[in-house]
């Protein structure tokens, strides 16, 4: 399954691990004191990790741009 959302970790990450604990899908790990998405992760966009990050280091982005709306004629 392709991930619907990309996880982005900014330089504000302090490696506290709160996001690792919050993700039910085990999408994140800590490498060299910083949160890193695991290879092959599938993020469903629940935002639990985003909400619990004390430094607001996490953000999500759609993996694909929204399809343009085509009006039916
Ligand atoms: S948004 Fe939800 S599924 Fe995605 S990495 Fe964060 S906690 Fe996990
Ligand atoms: S919760 Fe925030 S500061 Fe803590 S490890 Fe995750 S991204 Fe880094």
TrEMBL record:
Domain 4Fe-4S ferredoxin-type stretches: 3-32, 33-63
InterPro entries (UniProt xref): 4Fe4S_Fe-S-bd, 4Fe4S_Fe_S_CS
Keyword flag Iron-sulfur: yes
Keyword Metal-binding: yes
Keyword terms of this UniProt record: Iron, Iron-sulfur, Metal-binding
PROSITE patterns: 4FE4S_FER_1, 4FE4S_FER_2
Pfam family, one: Fer4_7
Name of the protein in question: 4Fe-4S ferredoxin-type domain-containing protein
Natural source organism: Gordonibacter faecis
Source taxonomy: Bacteria, Bacillati, Actinomycetota, Coriobacteriia, Eggerthellales
């Amino acid at each position: 399954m392709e991930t619907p959302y990309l996880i982005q970790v900014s330089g504000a990450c302090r490696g506290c691990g709160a996001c690792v604990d919050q993700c039910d899908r085990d999408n994140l790990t800590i490498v060299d004191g910083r949160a890193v998405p695991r290879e092959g992760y599938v993020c469903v966009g629940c935002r639990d990790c985003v909400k619990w990050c004390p430094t607001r280091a996490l953000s999500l982005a759609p993996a694909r741009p929204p399809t343009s709306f085509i009006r039916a004629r």
